[in-house]
Amino acid sequence: MGDLLCLEDWQRAAQARLPGPTWGFLQGGSGAELTVAANRAAFDRRVLRPRVLVDVTKPDLGTTLLGDPLRAPLAIAPMAYHRLVHPDGEVATARAAGECGLPFVVSMFASRTLADIAAATTAPLWLQLYWLRRRDALADLVRRAEAAGVRALVLTVDAPRVAKRLRDLRSGFALPADVTAANIDPAAMAVMARTGESGSSIQSHSREQFDAAITFADLAWLRALTPLPLLLKGILTAADARLAVEHGVDGIVVSNHGGRQLDSAIPAIDALGEVVEVVAGRVPVLVDGGVRRGTDVLKALALGAAAVLLGRPVLHGLAVAGAGGVTAVLSTLREELEEAMVLAGAPRLSDVDAELVR
Fold first, then answer.
1. Which of 11, 12, 127, 265 is the most exposed place for a label (fewest CB within 10 A)?
2. Distance (Å, rounded) from C-alpha 93 to C-alpha 229?
3. CB atoms within 10 A of CB 44
4. What domains are there in the chain, each with its CATH number?
5. Catalytic site residue from 82, 86, 257, 316
6. From CA 260, how far away is CA 29, in angstroms rounded?
7. Per residue in 233-269, pLDDT tens?
8. Is 247 a known active-site residue?
9. Nearest-5° angle of CA 92, CA 95, CA 96?
10. Dmax (CA) of the chain
11. CA angle centred on 113, ends 111 and 119, rounded to 5°
12. Which of 77, 129, 80 is nearest to 103 (CA)?
């Protein structure tokens, strides 16, 4: 792993190891993948405005999020089926999160059980949810999450159905028989075993199982079900952020699903400012999508994010070297963030503000 010096190196190494259809599933986006490219471009067009002659001898990246102390303002974004890239799957990812002192947002479609994931880590675990038509199955999953020690729920709100992903259709991607959603009622997942009319079993499953009729008013049902904090993931406008806060959510994740849902959606980093402004500090605002460098994280923090979620690079590390690879990826990003803060003259998170970025 000594030659893997940045997250782009891990990406190339993972691509060399994984089958083409699996790589396409991990890396691909919806439609023409315009939003996938735009997420990166939106970070690259921003510049940092460093201050000088600042005492930077003792940088401090520590923060607190939903009551948990973190070693850095970073977390692992929810991604399905980690066993696609490594046999230990989410257990290895959770172990790395614990090593790094960062939260792990476990996907509803994790390929290891919540109990096994929780037993492998000291990291704060959050559970990501899609709203199923079968509310009994959703309620049962929430109860099992509570029993496993999950500390927050993250409801994905930008996916009333899974968007068409051309890479998967062209490659005929399908889940291997031994990779399943380990925490979902098998009856609800039966459609995943066959190919739908669209040619994508995952897309067909979402149309059969996701409830496309839910509104902000339905959040009351979920809030009544559990005392766990609730974050909404997929907010991209001030109007929706305002509604989220009015309906009592405990946090917002500004996200366009890594470019995997509405193609041509605004890059998350471009939407961050208006969301932060309307939220006005009432709940933490997180962001994901396109993060590959420590300077990306610093730019997001300067625009008001409380923390940044890292997605695909985590799976790149997992594919190459299991838990050690994930630890290395997270550590690299943290080290890059520390260096960026020092060189920008903002050695503590309290020093990072909007004046730092343009």
1. 12
2. 22
3. 13
4. 7-353 (3.20.20.70)
5. 257
6. 4
7. 999 999 999 999 999 999 999 999 999 999 999 999 9
8. no
9. 90
10. 63
11. 125
12. 77
